[in-house]
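Morning run. Coffee first, then this:
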Amino acid sequence: MPAVAGEVWSWHTVDVSVVKTSRAEVILHGRLRTGNSFGTPQQGRVGVISKLPFPSIGSLVGGYYYGKEEDSSDEWQNKHRIFGGLEVPVYGGHGVAIDTRGLVERFFVPDSPAFNRYRQRFRLRTDGRLGPYLSTEWFFDANGYLSSRHGAGLRWRCAESVTLEFGYLYDARRANIGEPRHVIVTQFTLDRLWR
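And here it is:
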């Protein structure tokens, strides 16, 4: 079954909420991605994410990432990304929360034309101290469908303001982008560093 074949990667993310009030949230973000040789860095990025409440609907989301990524010729290139969109709660009750997020991203890569990417995510998580999460996210560009990522894992709120996640993600990609990827993902979130 060719759909099951693919590369094995790992993505490790840290988000630290440096400001969180009723009017705004500012998150410092970092991620390290290792490539198919599992353990060899392939991408690193840092940035900031801002969330502003959008009354009775959800939150406006915007931000910027700076990253370095290894390309197909084994050279590292700088990448700049700005993004914005809307995050909306879909359901909350009985210990379960479902939300959706839509973003428009603009990428700037030296010696290449800038381009847009569009993404839509749905995520389900439980509100308990330890519980599963499920997510699906769809990506599009000027040529239509780009990829989709489908993930599941465990979410552990190990302290009032600290959450750890560990899971698996299947990254299905358009044929001209590359074969599917199997990804081990970790996420560390430190919430409410300052109020």
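The chain has no helices and eleven strands. Good start to the day.
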